[in-house]
Amino acid sequence: MYINIHTHLAQPTDDWFLQNFYTHFNQTTELKYCSAGVHPWYINAQQWQEDFASLTNAVQTKNILAIGECGLDKVCATDFDLQVKVFVQHIHLANEINKPLILHCVRAHDDILLLLKKERNKVPVIFHGFNRNEAIAKKIIEAGCYVSFGKGLVKKEMQECLRKIPVDRFFLETDDAEISIRDIYQLAAKAFQIDEDSLSLQLFKNASAIFGAGVLKI
Fold first, then answer.
1. Domains in the chain, start-ordered, CATH in brackets?
2. Cα–Cα distance measured from residue 207 to residue 57, given in angstroms and rounded to the nearest whole number
């Protein structure tokens, strides 16, 4: 089984994947499993409360397994204080309904970790699309969170970073890239210097710890 923790694109039906929605939350009912959240790029100062209300209603359904992607981005045009306000609402929502958070983070890892602690987050947290260094990964892991790797694994330095991650604290994804989850698995297996069957078993264990083995069915 190939487990793709975060994608914006439809995937082969023999893969297990969470397709992300950052708008049109009413369409999530058409998918088996997905995640949903107000992405920091698309926060509108005049409309975000309406969007968040729509999200809050949608995530009550069982097929939405995670809240996000949501988070903070210090490079995008959205006002950072507004990003923080909306992200805090996502933290509260996730904890109210006991669903994990999938995070978008650009140059704001310390800010996010501080907010998670301040808001007394209790649900699992996955930093998706991780492409930074070992030092930042270590901070995330020490805070009890997970990191998810994708197309960045084509770079040797990211394979080196993955190799240092505890095996029970990582996931793999395709995000918005055309690369297949199978290719991502091959790169990760190479990084860990293990066979793909062993890698698949570990990722099944990791996903089961967050979502429960019952939903990991194709």
1. 3-215 (3.20.20.140)
2. 25
CB 30 within 8 A of CB 63: no
Distance CA 112, CA 109 (A): 5
Whole-angstrom Cα distance, residue 201 to residue 204? 5
Residue environment code for 8-17, b if the CB has 16+ CB neighbours within 10 A, otherwise e: eeebeeebbb
Q: Which two tokens stand for residue 210?
A: 């967050």
Strands of the sheet with 34-36, listed across from one edge: 3-7, 16-21, 34-36, 64-73, 101-106, 125-127, 146-149, 170-172
Q: Residue 31's pLDDT band (boundaries 50, 70, 90)?
A: confident
Amino acid identity for residue 108 in this structure: A
Distance separating alpha carbons of residues 210 and 207, to the nearest angstrom: 5
146 φ, ψ (degrees, to nearest 5): -110, 160
Determine the Cα–Cα distance for residues 3 and 76; give it in Å rounded to an integer: 29
Say whether the peptide bond before residue 69 is cis (omega within 30 degrees of 0): yes
pTM of the model: 0.96
Length of the chain: 218
Query: pLDDT above 90 covers what percent of the chain?
Result: 90
Contact 108, 73 (CB under 8 A): yes
Of 41, 70, 73, nearest in space to 56 by CA = 70
CA dihedral 28, 42, 72, 180 (to 10 degrees): 50
